[in-house]
Amino acid sequence: MTPASAREVRRNGGHVVHVIAPGEFGGLERVVESLAESQRARGRTVSVIALTQQGMRTPPLLAILRSVGIEVHEVTSGGRAYLSQARSIRALCARIKPTIVHSHGYLPDALVSFTLGDRYSKVTTVHGFTGGSLRNRAYERLQLLSFRRFDAVAVVSNALRTRLMEAGLQDNRITVIRNAWRSTGDLPNRKEARKLLGLSEPAGSPSETLVGWVGRVSWEKGLDVMVEALAQLRDLPCRLVILGDGPDLDRSRKLAQRLNVTEGIRHLGAIQGAGKLLRAFDLVALTSRTEGTPMILLEAMAAEVPIVATSVGGVPDVLTPGDARLVPSEDPVALAKMIRDILADGVSAQTRAGNARRRLANLFDTDSWIDAYDDLYARAGGH
C-alpha cells in the first residue's frame, strides 16, 4: 500500500472515543469539539465519554457534539467516585469497541491508563498543567505517572514536551501537535460584537478603549496581574472587559477594590462562543502564569485584533514579536507599558495583527492538525 493510500485508510476508518471531564467552557473543551467534529467530517466514527458531576449543569459541549451527530455517553457520579467511573469507562469501551481511546485531562488520563490496560490503543493529549495548590500538583504528579501507560502522548507545545522529558518520559514517545483553529464562518464586526456583548454606552463608546480578557478566572490565568496593570493606566480612557468565571473571581474583585479600579472593569461572566466576539475589543490581553497552546490566542489571531500576552508555555510557539507584544509573566508594569504602546501606535498594532492572521492561516490549519493525529493514531496501533 502506498503512503497516500495508507493515509486515506486512516482518514476514513476507525472508531475514536474521546474521554473528557468537561467544564462549562474552556480551551480543552474547544479543542475536543474541533477535533471530534473534524475527525467525523473525515469519515471516522467518533464517540465521546464525558465524566460529569451530580448536581452540576450539563456542560454545553455535550449538546454541541450531539447536535452534529456525535454520540455522547455521559457518566454522571458524585465527587471522587473513581471506581464507579472506571467501571463505566471499561463497560462502555467493551460495548463500543473503539480503535483508539483518546483521553484529555488529568482525571480521564488516570482512569483510562489504569483501567483499560492493553486492551485498546490509548492516546492522550496533554493540554497543560495549572500548578498552584498542593492538590493540583498531586493530581499532576499522578497524571505524569499515567503517561507511561499510553501508546502515544501528544503535547500542545515544546515547553510541555520538555516538562514530560524532565519527568522521565522517553522523547520518542512524545509528539508535539499544536492546537489548530477551525473557521466557523464569518466573525461579527466591531459594532455587531459589542452589541452582542451588551457593551452599550458608556462602555462601548468609540472614545473608550476596551481591553478584552477571556478565560477561566483561576490563579494560573493571572487576572490579578491584569487588574494591577489597569491601576497603572488610570490616565487613559481604558476599560477592562472580563469574559469568564472561576474560583479566583472574588479575590480579583477585592484586589480591584483595593486598587480603586472597580469602575474601570466590566465583568460579563462566562459566555459561550466568546472567541467569535473578540472584534469587540481594541486589544486582547492574555496574562497567564502557565499555558499550553491557548485557544484564545488563535481566536484573537483569527479576529485580527492586537494582542499582548505573557511569554509562557506554548505562547512563543504561537506568536512572534512581529505578531504581538510579548511580556514576562507576573509583571504588571511591563504589561501596562505594552498596552500603552499598542494604544499609542495603532498603525503598528494593526500591522502585527495582520501578520498574526497570516501566521494562523499558514501554521495552524485544521487539515494539517488532523493529519498529525491520524499519523499518531497509526503509530499507537490504531487505524
Q: What does it look like?
A:
By secondary structure, this protein is an alpha/beta fold. It has 2 domains: 194 residues, Glycogen Phosphorylase B (Rossmann fold); 174 residues, 3-Layer(aba) Sandwich (Rossmann fold). It is built from 15 helices and 13 strands. Strand 6, helix 7 and strand 7 form a beta-alpha-beta unit. The chain is globular, with a radius of gyration of 21 Å. The two termini are 14 Å apart. The relative contact order is 0.12. The N terminus is likely disordered.
Question: In terms of topology, how is this protein built?
Answer:
Layout lengths: L2 H10 L2 E6 L6 H15 L3 E9 L6 H8 L3 E7 L4 H15 L3 E5 L1 H10 L5 E6 L7 H13 L5 E4 L2 H9 L7 E3 L13 H7 L12 E6 L8 H8 L7 E6 L5 H10 L6 E3 L15 E4 L8 H9 L3 E4 L4 H4 L6 E3 L4 H13 L1 H18 L2 H15 L3
Parallel strand pairs: 1-2, 1-4, 2-3, 4-5, 5-6, 6-7, 8-9, 8-11, 9-10, 11-12, 12-13
Helix pairs in contact: 5-6, 9-10, 9-13, 11-14
